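FORM 12-B: Structure-to-Sequence Request
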């Protein structure tokens, strides 16, 4: 395929980009699907060519940890979808977060982090960064005054998720960017829950966007991977340092699977979101549900960002049961179809208990500050028939009701 094959990438609609953006293979057999370059290393035509490639004087592949045609196609597609110049694919979502943040901090630096993020991200910033002399402050990034007070001369980056895992707190990216715009501080946004189809942080000031590609981007529950999107210089820095030398690079096969999954991202997200709405309507009518956290709810703070920052509410819902942790566990243990498993974005509906699972790295104090109670449950709504998802929730809630009536 000629070098000008991607000139229209930025003019296509997202539903077209997820299928075609970045495709630049020239298969001698005319294969429609991008070839999988399942190789660890690449041959040089001469010793001189090998020398030139290692010196950066000639383009070309050397070793799949440093670059691979299948991986490069995924990176081009994701960069196009997020509106950036470049991207880097990684072995896991946490590999993406670690590589993207560690590339730009040194011992003695300071970072500011949203007080509501994924548990392992919290552990990375609160424990690993501290071990290497990087201080992290976890604050409510919607409080502009607090953000201004928290910034220091040595602050190097601000990191946030929106909507946040697990209770769907949203952050106004544009307002955060406005506070730090005149300073040498990178704004890094985890866009996993929204995908680039429903939110593009770059439009609101994000310097770098990260994804757990394990989730909606792949969509089939058979890959763990991550994506970093940014300008060409930042991605080059990441690829040449923390990604190359710490080695969290993606396998070509996993990159190929994500390329396959991306082709159906648009239609999958439509079904995910429709089902999530139906589940929310069911939960909101139950008296045994104490509180629901869902960006699609009329009273959720996300409504102020709809049409501005977010084009949809996503497919993840968190809710608190009336009662205690024992009742929450009883409910989870009595589901039949819905899988008790962490992660999200799969065809299957997944449900979990954040306080003891994904957010167990939080201290009790940090969980309380983030609003992660012992009865909080997170459901990632899948692609099954909405009525079947609801029926399973209903029978498990009914089992709880009967059990607690008998024990009263």
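FORM 12-B RESPONSE
SEQUENCE OUT:
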């Amino acid at each position: 395929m000629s070098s000008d094959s991607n000139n229209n990438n930025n003019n296509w609609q997202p539903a077209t980009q997820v299928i075609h953006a970045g495709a630049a293979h020239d298969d001698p057999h005319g294969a429609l699907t991008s070839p999988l370059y399942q190789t660890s290393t690449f041959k040089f035509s001469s010793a001189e060519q090998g020398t030139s490639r290692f010196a950066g004087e000639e383009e070309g592949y050397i070793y799949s940890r440093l670059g691979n045609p299948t991986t490069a196609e995924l990176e081009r597609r994701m960069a196009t979808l997020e509106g950036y110049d470049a991207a880097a694919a990684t072995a896991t979502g946490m590999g993406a977060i670690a590589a993207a943040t560690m590339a730009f901090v040194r011992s003695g630096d300071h970072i500011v982090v949203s007080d509501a993020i994924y548990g392992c991200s919290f552990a990375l910033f609160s424990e690993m960064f501290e071990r290497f002399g990087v201080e992290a402050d976890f604050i409510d990034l919607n409080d502009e005054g607090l953000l201004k007070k928290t910034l220091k001369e040595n602050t190097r980056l601000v990191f946030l998720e929106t909507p946040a895992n697990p209770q769907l707190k949203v952050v106004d990216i544009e307002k955060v960017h406005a506070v730090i715009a005149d300073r040498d501080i990178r704004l890094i946004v985890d866009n996993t829950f929204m995908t680039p189809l429903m939110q593009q942080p770059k439009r609101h000031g994000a310097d770098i966007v990260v994804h757990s590609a394990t989730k909606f981007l792949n969509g089939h529950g058979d890959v763990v991977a991550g994506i970093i999107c940014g300008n060409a210089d930042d991605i080059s820095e990441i690829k040449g340092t923390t990604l190359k030398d710490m080695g969290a690079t993606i396998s070509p096969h996993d990159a190929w699977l994500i390329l396959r999954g991306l082709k159906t991202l648009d239609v999958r997200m439509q079904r995910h979101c429709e089902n999530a709405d139906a589940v929310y309507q069911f939960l909101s009518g139950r008296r045994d549900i104490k509180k629901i956290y869902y960006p699609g709810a009329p009273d959720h703070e996300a409504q102020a960002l709809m049409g501005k920052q977010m084009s949809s509410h996503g497919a993840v819902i968190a809710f608190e049961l009336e009662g205690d942790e024992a009742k929450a566990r009883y409910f989870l243990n009595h589901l039949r179809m819905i899988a008790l498993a962490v992660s999200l974005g799969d065809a299957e509906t997944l449900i979990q208990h954040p306080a003891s699972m994904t957010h167990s790295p939080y201290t009790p104090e940090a969980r309380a500050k983030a609003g992660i109670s012992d009865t909080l449950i997170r459901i990632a709504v899948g692609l099954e028939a909405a009525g079947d998802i609801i029926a399973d929730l209903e029978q498990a809630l009914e089992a709880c009701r009967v059990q607690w009536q008998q024990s009263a």
